[in-house]
Structure formats: structure tokens, C-alpha cells
Amino acid sequence: MAKSSYRDVVCSNVAKLLRVERERQSVSMTRLAEMSGLSQGMISLVEHEQRNPSLETMMRICQALKIELSAVLEGVPKVFVKGSADSGYADTSGVFCRSE
Description:
The chain is mostly helical. The chain has one domain: Orthogonal Bundle (434 Repressor (Amino-terminal Domain)). The protein is built from five helices and two strands. It has helices spanning 6-24, 29-36, 40-47, 55-65, 69-74; strands spanning 88-90, 96-98. It has a two-stranded antiparallel ribbon with strand order 1-2. Helix 2 crosses helix 4. Residues 80-84 and 89-100 have low confidence and may be disordered.
């Protein structure tokens, strides 16, 4: 079972949700870049999970797509673990488990 931090799972899910919404709206990466004021390269890096978007970047993308940031975050698995966000791991299905 591949292990990744909860943060990695969250970032991966956000990237996928943003890409799905962009494609649902039939917006190209180039057009989204123009609409958001970001570079096409940044959009690509975020969607391909090569960059974790800052809150500012996520807000700009969401505003360009006319979606609420909260709607994107609702699609992310919610886990509450005492201690740091990395005090457990998430398997490839997004199931979070405490480290022993």
C-alpha cells in the first residue's frame, strides 16, 4: 500500500476537482489562465499535481470558474487527527490511517 500524507491526498483531490470542473465547463487551460490572471504553466502544474496551489491561486481559479472555494474543499476527505496533519497516512484510495 503506497503511503502519502493527508496533505498530499488533499492537494491531489483539489487538483482533480479543479480539472474536472474546468473540463465540465469546456474551458481550456489557456483560457482559464487568461480568466484567472495566472500563467498557463501554473494551471498545468496544479492540475498535474506538480505544484500545490496557494490559497490565493485556488481562489483565483475558483473565481475564474465561478465556483465557491468551499465547494472544491467539500470534495476533499475530512479527517481529524490529534497532532500534526502528517501524524498518519492516507492510502491510495484516500483512506486515512493513524501511524503506529
